Amino acid sequence: MSGPQCCSNPPTLNPSAGAGHVEQLGGLSSYVSGSPDSKLAILLISDVFGYESPNLRKLADKVAAAGFYVVVPDFLHGDPYSPENADRPITVWLKDHGPDKAVEEAKSVIEAVKNKGVSAVGAAGFCWGAKVVVELAKAELIQAAVLLHPSLVTLDDIKGVKVHIAVLGAEIDKLSPPELLKQFEEVLIAKSEVDSYVKIFPKVAHGWTVRYSVEDEAAVKPAEEAHQNLIEWFAKYVK
C-alpha cells in the first residue's frame, strides 16, 4: 500500500463534480446519485484521494443510470491523501485513516440506506477502499462485492468472504500483483457457496479504473471495460 503506485496519477479533486449531490448519510458527507426510490443501493468506496475524484463520481453516475441508488461516502472526513505534503507520507497518513474505522462507519451508511427502503446493497472498493469492502463481504453486510486494484487485501481476507465477489486487477501492480490475484482466484473457485470472478487487465497499472486522463483514449478504454464489468456484476447479484 505504501509504494509509489498507490499514489501515482492523483486526481484533481472537485467538490462539485458529478450530476448528483452531497448529503449526510449515516453521519458522513456522501455524494449520492440516482433515484432515492430505488430499492437497490451501491456503495463506492474511494481510494486514498477520496470522494471528490471526478472520475469516481462519473462512475457513480454511470452506475446510477443502470438503476441503482449510488452512495460515495467521505470516509476520509475531508482529509484525502496529498502527495504534495512531504511531512505526511502515505505511511503516516494511513495511521489516521485505517480501513477498520471506515468499516464501522460503512455499517452506519448501510443502515441509513436501508432506512430509506433499500432492500439490497452492493459495494465496490478501489485500492484502499477494497480493504473496507472485503471486510463488509466477510461480515455479510452486503449482497455482492467488487474489488478494483485492491490494496491491503490478503489471502486470509479472501478466504473469509461470504458473498459473491468480483476482483478486477491490473497486470502492472506491485500492491496486488497478478500472482496474488491468481491465489485469490484459486481460493474463490474452491468456495462453492459464492460466485466469483477474477480478471487481470493487460497493460494497465494499479489505479487504472479511476485515475485515468479523460483525454487518453488508451487509458479510458480499459477503465470503461472495468466499469461495465462492475455494473454487470451488481446487476446480477444486487436485486
Fraction of residues in helix: 25-40%
Cα separation of the termini? 33 Å
> Which class do the helix and strand fractions yield?
alpha/beta
- The largest beta-sheet arranges its strands as 1-2-4-3-5-6-7-8
Total beta strands: 8
Radius of gyration: 16 Å
Arithmetic mean pLDDT: 96
| Number of helical stretches of at least 4 residues | 7
Strand content is: 15-25%
Give the helices and strands as they follow along the chain: EEEHEHHEHEHEHEH
Query: What global shape is seen?
Result: globular
Main beta-sheet annotation: 8 strands, mixed
Low-confidence spans: none
Structure description:
By secondary structure, this protein is of the alpha/beta class. The chain is 36% helix and 22% strand. The chain has seven helices and eight strands; from the N terminus they run E-E-E-H-E-H-H-E-H-E-H-E-H-E-H. Helix 3 crosses helix 4. The protein is globular and about 40 Å long. The mean pLDDT is 96.
